[in-house]
Amino acid sequence: MTWSVDEIDYAAIDVARVRDNRTLFYLLTSASFMESGSDTYAGNLARHYADTPEAAAWLKQQWEGEELQHGLSLRRYVEHVWPEFDWAAGYERFFGEYRLTCNDDNLETSRALEMAARCVVETGTASYYRALEAASDEPVLRELARRISSDEVRHYKHFFRYFNDLNDRERHGRLKVLGVIARRLLEIKNDDADISLRNILRVERGRDDIPDADVAALNSQCSDMVRHNLPIEMTIKMLLRPLHLHARIERLVHRPLVAMVSLAILR
Predict the structure, then answer these.
(1) Is-contact 49 107, C-beta < 8 A?
(2) Which CATH class is domain 17-266?
(3) How far apart are CA 22 and CA 133, in angstroms?
(4) Does the chain have fewer CB atoms within 10 Å around its N or its C terminus?
(5) What does DSSP assign to residue 206?
(6) What's the mean per-residue pLDDT of the chain?
(7) CB pairs under 8 A, 24+ apart, for 230-235?
(8) DSSP assignment of 25-75
C-alpha cells in the first residue's frame, strides 16, 4: 500500500464545511459501503484468473487490501462527520443484498476482455473520486479523495497491462474490445448505487419499505453532483487506451464517446 488510513488526520476535519451537505453524505456513505465489500468481488476475480498466477496474486495480495482500505477510510470520515448515522447497521443491510450480485455470471468469459472491462470500472471509480475532491472545499476530504483516486488510476494501469499481455495471446480485435468497453460503460450505473442508497434510507427512516421513486430521486441528486465535477477529459483518455487507436481516430470518436459517457455515468 502506498499510504495508510492512519495517516488521515480525521481530527482535523472542518466539520462545519461538510456537515450540512447531504448529497456528499450519501455519496461518501454509498462509496464506503461498496468499497467495504470489495473482498467478495476480489475473490471472484482471483479465481477467474487462477491460470494467470501473477494477476491472481496481485488481486488478492494488493488490490483487495487497498480497496478495503478505501472503504475503511471513508467509513471513518462518515462516522466522524455524521456520528448519528449507524454505519454498521446500514452496511449489514447493504451487504446482505450486494453479495448476491457478486458472482461469476457478471465476468467476461475471455480473460483479456474481462481486463478491458476492469479498465472501464477503474476509470469510473478514479473519475468518481476526482469529482468528490472537486465537489468539496473540506481539506481532509479533498486529500482523502485524491489519495483514493490516485490508487484507482494505479489499479487501472495494472489492469491495462494485464489486458495487453493476455490480448497478445487471445488476439481480440478493436471492435470486440470496443463492444466490451461500451457494454460495461452502459452497465456502470447498475444496481449497486440503488442498493446502497436504499439501505442508507432504511437506516435513516427506520423502516424497510422505501419507495423506488425515493431511491431514484436520490440517485439522480447524487449523479447531478458527480456530473458537475467529473473530469471528462481524463475519463475519455482512460477509456480509449485499450483500443490502441491512432491519434486521428481518437479525435474522430472523441465527441460520440463523450456523449456515451454522459449517458452512462451521468444519467
Answers:
(1) no
(2) mainly alpha
(3) 16
(4) N
(5) T
(6) 91
(7) 230/127, 230/130, 230/131, 230/265, 230/266, 231/127, 231/130, 231/131, 231/134, 232/258, 232/261, 234/126, 234/127, 234/130, 235/123, 235/124, 235/127, 235/261, 235/265
(8) HHHHHHHHHHHHTHHHHHHHHHHHTTTSHHHHHHIIIIIHHHHHHHHHHHH
Residue 40 grid coordinates: 467478495
pTM over 0.85: yes
pLDDT in tens, 114-154: 999 999 999 999 999 999 999 999 999 999 999 999 999 99
pLDDT of residue 101: 82
- Closest Cα to residue 24, out of 91, 98, 84, 77? 77
**Of 221, 149, 238, 239, nearest to 185 (Cα)?**
239
Q: What do you get for the CA distance between the two ends of the chain, in Å?
A: 34
Task: Decide if 127 contacts 231 (C-beta within 8 A).
Answer: yes
Percent of the chain past pLDDT 70, that is, above it, reads 96
